[in-house]
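Handout, section B. The chain below has 110 residues.
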Amino acid sequence: MAYSSAITMCGGPDMYMAENNWASYLPITLSMVIIAIIWINKRGKRTTYALLSAMVGAMLIVLVHQLILAEAFYYLGTTLLFVGILINSSFVAVYHALKRKLFGQAQSIS
């Protein structure tokens, strides 16, 4: 659910800020959904780092929405939301799998 919420936000600020209607609040709502999902799926210290990343990302999206920051910060905010999701998900398992794959192939080549 968190990944699908974050992917929906990849449409960019042009799609959400073209007019002042209900769709312009969609990224803010999805950011709050992502933060809630991370909070519910507690995993110790990883959740703290994930929440910090997601909250900073949500704050950047809100500030872009309020026209305080430039549009480039929208993409940084969305990236931080993805990072927060990744940290709180099975990041360790993905990291170890990539490490095995990359370093396992490097050893077999030499």
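Note. The longest helix spans residues 45-65. Compare this with the example in section A.
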